[in-house]
Design a protein that fits this description.
The chain is mainly alpha-helical. The chain has nine helices and no strands.
Length: about 170
């Protein structure tokens, strides 16, 4: 009696749903039946295509959890996370990550321009390289420039001593 009543309620509910939603649910249920029919032992074996179907359904269909019977919804979410990790592991595999390297000739040219023109900064050298047709960022130019030693700056003690002595000289000159 309980099964008949629940199937009647589900039929009544399906009258108010859209056709696309019902077709997706039928697809999900038929897929689960196909998986259960092809099993050889007590446990259903899911293939990669089955997992991909459920990951796709979980992304596109809001009521996918209610139709899922053969595995837990947490398992589908775990498959989704595993696929995400595999994708990014593939995307960032060795040798293809990061910026492309700068050739030694361009590095030598940057250092030569910097040592020949010590007053030029990275923006000026970057502009000159662009005029030569060398596409490189200004940050990269600054990275490969020769760091020039600047004279040490004046300390506060020296500044105060100089200003106080000049102040005293001004007082005594009057």
């Amino acid at each position: 009696m309980k099964a008949v009543l629940s199937s009647f309620l589900f039929t009544l509910r399906s009258c108010f749903r859209t056709r696309a939603s019902m077709q997706i649910e039928i697809l999900a249920l038929r897929h689960q039946l196909a998986v259960l029919q092809r099993r050889t032992n007590k446990r259903a074996s899911l293939r990669t295509a089955d997992r991909l179907l459920w990951v796709l359904l979980s992304r596109r269909w809001a009521q996918w959890r209610s139709a899922l019977v053969i595995v837990k919804p947490e398992t589908v979410i775990a498959w989704q996370r595993k696929g995400f990790r595999l994708y990014w592991r593939w995307k960032s595999r060795a040798g293809n990550s990061g910026r492309p390297g700068v050739s030694p000739e361009i590095r030598a040219l940057i250092r030569q321009m910097n040592s020949a023109n010590p007053l030029w900064g990275a923006p000026r050298i970057h502009g000159e390289l662009l005029k030569l047709g060398i596409q490189i960022s200004q940050a990269t130019v600054a990275k490969y420039m020769v760091s020039q030693r600047k004279p040490p700056s004046q300390t506060w003690r020296i500044f105060l001593r100089i200003t106080s002595s000049s102040w005293l000289q001004q007082i005594f000159w009057w």
